[in-house]
Amino acid sequence: MSSNNRNENKENSGLLLAIGLIGLAAATIFILWRVTLKWAHNSLIPWIRIKNLPKLGQIVEDALVFFDKARSVASDFVRRAWEAWNKFRVLLVKQVMRFNKKQGTMQIVSSVENWVREPQDTNVISHQIVEADVEWNDLPPDIRIAIIENGQHEVDVVTAREAEFAEMGYVN
């Protein structure tokens, strides 16, 4: 494998990891945000007003309005990501990401295995494996733990992505 391909593969693996982590963070934020916003409007802002702290009350209200608008924009982004995922999902048969520890070292090899239908002929399925070295510190904690315990970790990316969207209320 050439140096350029290896660097490109590292970038692709890193991008997939980043997308997964962003999706998970977004799901958490969306789930908790409504609860936090309701709590702030029902208890925090009235308490601040009772304490007669009008400047602080306005700052809190402005912050909540700003964050709610940001959540709305992020929500639109997630909806568009879900729509794009569904279009891509028609062609993506399967995607599996594996992390394996190289024997006797702390080096990790990530491999992403893809099965994708050809857009021109959906009966034809292309198969691809992309490998890249991954730094230990770049791995999420749950993957590190699995590697420590088993020497490897495998993720069905399609199932994981669909579960993330389902947690946010996006289900086919």
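That was protein one. Protein two is written in the same sequence-then-structure order:
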Amino acid sequence: MQLHCFGDSNIWGDEQPNCTIGINSQPSKTTFPYYLAKKLGIETVYNHAVSGGSLQLVADSLLFNFLPKNHSHDDIVIVYLPNCSKYSFVTNDRKEYNSVEDIIRYRLRSCVYDNELKKDTVEWMMKHLWHEQALYYNVIKHIITIDTFLKDYNNVFYFWNTRHHFSSFRKGQDGLDSELNFRNAWFPTDDLAEPCIGNSVFDKDIIDHDNPAFERIKNRTVDWDILSVFDSISDQLSVHKYKQKHHAPQVHEHYVDTFLYEHIKEKLNVD
């Protein structure tokens, strides 16, 4: 049995010791999938996560990098659902874009949201291109796509980012705010940084309805709010988060030791 994990920087291990980002990058190997594998006696972990990864990227990686390799359907598949959608563009003159796998891993390097995107353009986008519930439906669309790709696999476990529910759409669901926060010196402005979007936007029925397509997703979900759990563990252990808000290895390890290992062990389905 092997373990495969998908997600963003929270799975890759950004800011943790030994983690590198870029060409020939290496994960930290101290995020919770690794601690889980060790507890289960699994020697091989394939980390398909990408720093800055999005929902589309997880789906792309599953479709192009994972499914064609015909791994055992009894392998463990950990899917962390990033908090956003991102649309990026690549050019064909980048030497590292010489395979599908390279395009998936490195395409965020050419993100459309860069320092050349001017304030007036962004403000127009904010004013005219938002529909909060539509952003949430976009999340559901991607998780159903991901789950469809994995329908024949026996040991699939989902971990949701905090902002997928409880409404903080503009701060997370399409990633624009967070991208600009890191890339543009003028951001945030008062009118963009604190949008007034309340819980009334949250369509609770989309989680709780009895649609058969979503029933399997609910059954495979381990944690609907994993980053909040990590925040609580950090407080409990008196461990500070890193500068970019990633969690320390001991937080990931504690999560596995006190909850995840026993939960997964009970759920494992192996022929």
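Strands lie at 3-6, 45-47, 76-81, 155-160, 221-223. Keep this in mind for the problem set.
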